[in-house]
Design brief:
Blueprint lengths: L1 H10 L4 H10 L4 H18 L16 H12 L7 H20 L26 H10 L6 H14 L3 H5 L6 E3 L5 E7 L5 E7 H8 L20 H14 L23 H8 L4 H8 L10 H4 L14 H9 L3 H21 L1
Antiparallel strand pairs: 1-2, 2-3
Helix pairs in contact: 3-5, 6-7, 11-12
């Protein structure tokens, strides 16, 4: 066993792979090391069709056109990489080639320079549950309305990315034998399988797509047959019909973030299929903050503890329903517990 291991290590002494590992190891952050290695592996698997361990010096010679083509490949990738993610991946490759050039590899680092993509970290504006629900209802009046409506509902319920939704097949949905709901599975970024339960009601909405006359022409087992252009036009029309201003930056990806209003940070992390909880934290709270609820203002409020006693039952119920979705759901759960305890005591 040790002899085999030593032979494998021996193959990499003074090799391209060893020098790449030296480059990666110079970064103190383990997270940076992991991200750089993943980005570099991805590039050479695309460009040289080889893992890092098998690279030869001749595999490193790349044209600027090749690198631009790779950047375009990432932009069109089914993983729906953000521009920020792509910029980070390209930066790792550029940094590696600067290292290789300094170490006399006969490469020119300027050949891997590409234009930095526009920062789109704010491109997916925040959408609230009632707005997403209104869109799903409103779009039923459009062409292919049932299919578009089901797509929107599935998008904000599962938080699957657009590419994952469009790749779904009917066989990706299974009835949960232990409960009255269905399990839907997709493959997300990095080839990670992700399964999310959906209600029987939502599954029935999907089934209604099959009843549409135009749908009979398809036999590929795909659930949705909507192009990205059609989806973009759908979003533009819905925003116009609902008078949603452009500055809110509402795009299809906004449906993915609707779930951030529900559950704990850990629950949202699992639902969004994030590897890093810091990524989840960016989506956990809506960016359109209600500054009236800021600590600096609330601490100055002098509120009467008995103010709720002054409200009628109808006013109190209306007040409760106006709270954030997550708050209302938690109150409903506690109300059920209270009524159950009361019935047990009686």
């Amino acid at each position: 066993m040790n002899a085999t291991k030593n032979n494998i290590v021996g193959l990499h002494i003074g090799s391209v792979y060893e020098d790449i590992q030296t480059f990666i190891s110079k970064f103190d952050s383990k997270n940076t090391q992991t991200n750089y290695e993943r980005s570099i592996r991805s590039f050479f698997m695309w460009f040289a069709k080889k893992p890092l361990e098998l690279l030869q010096r001749e595999d490193l010679h790349v044209r600027n056109a090749d690198v631009i083509k790779y950047q375009t490949y990432l932009r069109n990738h089914e993983a729906d990489y953000t521009n920020t993610t792509i910029n980070n991946m390209m930066a790792a490759i550029q940094s590696l080639y600067e290292f290789l050039e300094i170490n006399e590899y006969g490469v020119n680092s300027k050949y891997v320079k590409v234009d930095v993509l526009t920062d789109d970290s704010e491109s997916a504006g925040d959408l609230f549950h009632h707005e997403a629900e209104a869109m799903a209802n409103l779009v039923k009046g459009h062409k292919k309305g049932q299919e578009k409506s089901a797509l929107i509902r599935l998008a904000y319920t599962t938080s699957f990315r657009k590419s994952s939704l469009l790749n779904l097949e009917w066989t990706d949905i299974k009835r949960n034998p232990e409960a009255d709901h269905y399990l839907i599975t997709t493959t997300g970024k990095g080839g990670k399988k992700h399964t999310v339960p959906i209600s029987a009601e939502l599954y029935n909405e999907l089934e209604l797509i099959k009843e549409q006359k135009y749908y009979q022409q398809y036999s590929d087992n795909k659930i949705f047959h909507l192009s990205k252009t059609t989806i973009q036009n759908m979003m533009d029309t819905l925003k116009m019909e609902m008078s949603i201003p452009d500055e809110r930056n509402i795009v299809f990806h906004s449906f993915r973030n609707v779930a951030a209003s529900y559950g704990s940070l850990e629950e949202v992390k699992a639902h969004l299929n994030h590897s890093d909880i810091n990524t989840t934290n960016k989506y956990y709270r809506h960016k359109m903050k209600d500054y009236s609820q800021s600590i600096s203002l609330r601490m100055e409020d002098k509120l009467d503890d008995d103010v709720f006693e002054l409200l009628s039952k109808e006013e109190l119920i209306r007040l409760i329903k106006q709270q954030a979705v997550g708050t209302v759901i938690q109150m409903k759960k506690e109300a059920i517990e209270m009524t159950n305890k009361r019935e047990m005591n009686n």
